[in-house]
C-alpha cells in the first residue's frame, strides 16, 4: 500500500493500515436494532487495474437503507455478513485509471467503512463545495430527489396546495421549500408538535399536521381547506390513504418512498380507496428513482439548488453525527424520526 501512495500528497493520511467497517451481522425480521450490526477492522484494500482507492469523508444515512434489507428493489438486497451498504462522499487517494486523480471528490456506494476500492465506472465525480456536507444534503441525493420529483412529476403551480410527508426529513424539507419558491401553499406532515412548529417557524411552511395524533384526518382537512393538488409521498401507508381522500380533481401524487413500511416485518396492505379514488378524481400517481434523472434534470437540480442556497432562498438543514461507529444507532434513530433535515455521519473527522 505504501508503494501505491509514494509520490502522492496523500501519504500522510495513511498513518495506519486499518479500515474500520460496519457489517450487517444479521438481517432484521422486524425492527432494526444495534444487534443487527457488528464492527470489524480489516487492512485497507489495494486498488487493481482500472480501480481507485477512496477515503470516506461523509456517509449518507437514508431511510432507504432499511428498505434495502427487505429484498431486492431498484438495487440488489443487502445480505448478512457483508459491509453495510450506503452512499458516501469520498476522496480519491490512489487512482489506477486516467479518469480520476488523487484528491478528486466522488459520490459512490462506498458502504459503511473508512476506505474502499471501486471500479471507476461506479464513481460520480463531484465539484468541491463549501461546506462539503452540502454535497450530501441539499446538493446530494435527497436534495435532487426533492427537486426532480416535485418539479418534473408534481409541477406545482402558484396558488396550488402542495402537501409533503416526512416533511422535516432530508427530502421533505427541501420539497417544501422549493414548493414555497414556486408560489404554492405548502402543508407539511410530520411526527410530533415540535417538528410541526419548527417547519412553520423556521422553514416557512404555511401549515403542518402531526400524523401521530388521533385527529390527523381532521387536522389534514383543516390544513387544506381548498383540497390538495400535489402530494409528495415519502411514507405510503395510512398517511397516503388519508391524503388520497382529500386530493382535488386531476391532482398529482409523487410516489417517492414508503418509509412507514420499511422498519417492520409486517407491512400494511393498504391504502384503501385505490383504485376508486384515482379513477373518480382523475389522479396521476407516478413513481420515480432519482437516478433516472442523472445526466439530465439532476444536473439542473444541483445548479438551481446551489443558487437558491447561495441567495438564501433555501435553508440547509443538516444533522451531522461524528464517527462511523455511531452509524447503527443513527440509522435506527432516523427511522424513529429523530432527525431534522439530512442525517449523515462525518467519517473522516477532518472533513469540512
Ligand atoms: P428522512 O425523511 O430524512 O427520514 C425519515 C423520516 O421518516 C423520519 O425522520 C420520520 O420523520 C419519518 N417516518 C418514520 N417512520 C414514519 C412513519 N411510520 N410514518 C410517517 N413518517 C415516518 O429520510 P430520507 O432519506 O429523506 O427519505 C425520505 C423518503 O424518500 C423515503 O421514503 C425514501 O425511501 C425516499 N427517497 C426516495 C428516493 C427516490 O429516488 N425515489 C431518493 C431518496 C429518498 P417523522 O418524525 O415525521 O416521523
The main pleated sheet reads as:
7 strands, mixed
Ligands in the structure? Answer: NADP nicotinamide-adenine-dinucleotide phosphate
* Shape by Cα distribution: globular
CA(first)-CA(last) distance: 26 Å
How much strand content do the residues show?
25-35%
Order of helices and strands: HEEEHEEEEEHEHEHEHEHEHEHEHE
Walk me through this protein's architecture:
The chain is α/β, with parallel strands linked by helices. Helix content is 26%, strand content 25%. β15, α10 and β16 (342-346) form a beta-alpha-beta unit. The strands form 3 sheets. Strands 3, 5, 6, 7, 8, 15 and 16 form a 7-stranded mixed beta sheet that branches. The protein has a 6-stranded parallel beta sheet with strand order 11-10-9-12-13-14, with helices on both faces. It is globular, with a radius of gyration of 21 Å. The longest helix is centred in the middle third of the chain and has 14 residues, at 141-154. It contains 10 helices and 16 strands. The structure holds NADP nicotinamide-adenine-dinucleotide phosphate. NADP nicotinamide-adenine-dinucleotide phosphate binds next to α2, α3, α4 and α10. Residues 62-64, 67, 141-142, 145, 166, 168-172, 190-191, 195, 211, 234-235, 239, 256-260, 288-290, 334-335, 337, 339 line the site of NADP nicotinamide-adenine-dinucleotide phosphate.
Amino acid at each position: 500500500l505504501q508503494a501505491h501512495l509514494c509520490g502522492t500528497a496523500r501519504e500522510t493520511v495513511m498513518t495506519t493500515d486499518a479500515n474500520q467497517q460496519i457489517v450487517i451481522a444479521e438481517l432484521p425480521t422486524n425492527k432494526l436494532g444495534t444487534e443487527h450490526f457488528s464492527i470489524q477492522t480489516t487492512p485497507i484494500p489495494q486498488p487493481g487495474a482500472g480501480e481507485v482507492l477512496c477515503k470516506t469523508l461523509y456517509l449518507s444515512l437514508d431511510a432507504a437503507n432499511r428498505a434495502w434489507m427487505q429484498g431486492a428493489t431498484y438495487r440488489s438486497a443487502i445480505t448478512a455478513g457483508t459491509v453495510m451498504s450506503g452512499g458516501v462522499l469520498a476522496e480519491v487517494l490512489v487512482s489506477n485509471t486516467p479518469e480520476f486523480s488523487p484528491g478528486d471528490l466522488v459520490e459512490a456506494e462506498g458502504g459503511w467503512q473508512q476506505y474502499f476500492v471501486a471500479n471507476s465506472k461506479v464513481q460520480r465525480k463531484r465539484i468541491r463545495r463549501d461546506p462539503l456536507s452540502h454535497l450530501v444534503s441539499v446538493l446530494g441525493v435527497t436534495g435532487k430527489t426533492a427537486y426532480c420529483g416535485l418539479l418534473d412529476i408534481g409541477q406545482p403551480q402558484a396558488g396550488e396546495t402542495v402537501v409533503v410527508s416526512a416533511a422535516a426529513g432530508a427530502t421533505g424539507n427541501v420539497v417544501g421549500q422549493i414548493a414555497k419558491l414556486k408560489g404554492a401553499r405548502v402543508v407539511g406532515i410530520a411526527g410530533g408538535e415540535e417538528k410541526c412548529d419548527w417547519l412553520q417557524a423556521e422553514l416557512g411552511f404555511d401549515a403542518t399536521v402531526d400524523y401521530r395524533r388521533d385527529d390527523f384526518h381532521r387536522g389534514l382537512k383543516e390544513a387544506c381547506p381548498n383540497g390538495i393538488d400535489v402530494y409528495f409521498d415519502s411514507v405510503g401507508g395510512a398517511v397516503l390513504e388519508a391524503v388520497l381522500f382529500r386530493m382535488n380533481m386531476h391532482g398529482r401524487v409523487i410516489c417517492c418512498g414508503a418509509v412507514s413500511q420499511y422498519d417492520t416485518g409486517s407491512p400494511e396492505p393498504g391504502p384503501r380507496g385505490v383504485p376508486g379514488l384515482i379513477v373518480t378524481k382523475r389522479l396521476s400517481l407516478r413513481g420515480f428513482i432519482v437516478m433516472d434523472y442523472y445526466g439530465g434534470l439532476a444536473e439542473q437540480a444541483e445548479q438551481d439548488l446551489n443558487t437558491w442556497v447561495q441567495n438564501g432562498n433555501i435553508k440547509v438543514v443538516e444533522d451531522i453525527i461524528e464517527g462511523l461507529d455511531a452509524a447503527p444507532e443513527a440509522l435506527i434513530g432516523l427511522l424513529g424520526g429523530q432527525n431534522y433535515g439530512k442525517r449523515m455521519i462525518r467519517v473522516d473527522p477532518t472533513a469540512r
